[in-house]
Write a structure and sequence with these properties.
This protein has 137 residues and is mostly helical. It has one domain. The protein is built from 5 helices and no strands.
Length: 137
């Protein structure tokens, strides 16, 4: 894959991730987190930290999931490896919080681990499909 296609794939993957995660955070689970975390939630997002997470997470997906899937395996391989990557990444955050923060809700941990797997898998499969298209063009 050329450098240009690698950058295009990264940006496309970032857009897919951001769109799906914003639907989750802004619509589907907005009230869930507010109810579960209450006073722990900041009234405003610290965008530099959120953006840094997105950039790093997408880099991880591209390096550890999508590139190997484009080499052999395709979208199905990207789906399951991305789900595993997402589960591990989200578990790092949530299980650490569960272990160290007073009154961190187990429900949030369970939901976030599921969401990390769904998000990582879905984004990786989409990215692999986009990558295949870029390789053909």
């Amino acid at each position: 894959m050329t450098l240009k296609n690698t950058v295009l794939l990264y940006l496309a993957t970032l857009a897919v991730f951001f769109l799906i995660d914003m639907v989750w955070l802004g619509l589907v689970a907005k009230n869930f987190y507010r109810q579960q975390l209450g006073e722990l939630l900041s009234p405003k997002v610290t965008w530099w930290a959120a953006i840094l997470f997105y950039l790093l997470f997408i880099a991880g997906l591209q390096i550890f999931v999508v590139a190997p899937a484009l080499g052999a395996g395709g979208a199905l391989q990207a789906l399951w490896r991305g789900a595993l990557f997402g589960l591990i990444a989200y578990a790092t955050y949530d299980l650490t919080n569960l272990a160290t923060l007073k009154d961190w809700p187990l429900t949030v941990t369970v939901v976030d681990l599921g969401w990390g797997a769904v998000l990582g898998g879905t984004v990786s499969a989409c990215s692999a499909l986009i990558g295949r298209w870029l390789l053909r063009n």
